[in-house]
Hints:
By secondary structure, the protein is α+β, with helices and mostly antiparallel strands. It has a domain at about 10-170 and about 225-325: Roll (Thiol Ester Dehydrase, Chain A), CATH 3.10.129. The protein has helices spanning about 30-40, 50-55, 70, 160-165, 180-200, 225-235, 255-260, 270, 290-295, 305-320, and strands spanning about 20-25, 90-100, 110-125, 130-140, 145-160, 215-220, 240-245, 325-335, 345-355, 360-370, 375-385. An 11-stranded antiparallel sheet has the order 6-9-10-11-8-2-5-4-3-1-7. Helix 1 packs antiparallel against helix 6.
Amino acid sequence: MTNATLDCSDLDNYLGKPLEPGRLREPISGTDIRRWAQAMHYPNRNHYDPDFGANSRHGRMHAPVSFPVACDDGHGTAPSCIGLIPESHMIFGGDEWWFEDTPIFPGDDITNERIPFDYVVKETGFAGPTCFQRGDNFYYNQHGDLISKQRSTSIRYNAKAAREMGSLTGFDDPEWTDAELMALEDRKYQWIKMLHELGHGKRYINDIAVGDALPTRVIGPHSIASFTTEWRAYLFTLWCGVHRRTDLDMEAMGFTAEMAGKEQDPVLELDNPEQTDGAYIGPSRGHLFPRWARHIGMPRGYGYGASMGAWILDYLAGWAGEWGQLVHVNAQYRGPAFTGDITIMDGSVTEKSTDDKGRQLVHVDFVMKNQLGTVMAKATGEIALPTRDS
């Protein structure tokens, strides 16, 4: 147990009040989309091969449904991580998504409107009193068309309490033999092969039965290099990649002094941008430096919650194919991907239904585990699929 307390009273001052919107410097490019698909380990050719995309349903290369968070200046967590909680740090807790059938193309300009939603404090075995804070993101294109809504959850806690409660185990990366790594590549390719076999074809709901298992997706082993590749695919991690917020102050949010830094400071970015890069100095360096991971209660380098969410969305969307549509996904994160681990994703069909728009839906239960069977995330999803007579 711990004697730590968590003062969340300041959060009430922000609920329901819009924050400054997330804004890009310029429209997104094909390279932005390709970089994202590569960083998320998602080899769907619609998202990186213009020749393949030209023959797709949309007639051109387009972005994955997970791409909007790459356009935000805070992984989609800005409205769920606002307000003062003294001596705190945060990790991602989950995301709930609602999707429109609005594709994103090179040349689009994405804006995110953000509103803090609610919070609750619970006692956890991880850090004692812990705040679960939620906020809403509304992603729009330059035409004002809604692309998707994301309700993000941040977990804010006392970092000292997390260390005191003994959460630090597993400091060393697991070791993989050459034979095991070769076998992993074969496992990984099975899911990639599924993408190729479906191609531009349709996955019909007529062919889906309750109890069907979705193909297993494997990525990893994760490393500092792979996490760095993910980090650099978020446009806000580039110098002047987005319009910086003027209402963001890490110290004012109560982050511990060692982790607050000046990430995304719009004035300092023009003078000494390395000081504003969270990968090196500030709250994001815990992912890439084991010393700072341990400082906030993690045993070694660990992955980004927003990337974990993208893996889930891409898993479901890749199976659905370009003629399917994610309608709703609700994901809860139990623990991050650590360096040296692999991530294994599975899904199963639990129900078929018709929604109030007449769309034919499959309901999927999803689970994400590492090689030890430790559950990293769980999710549910509803996916609209075409029918053979449509």
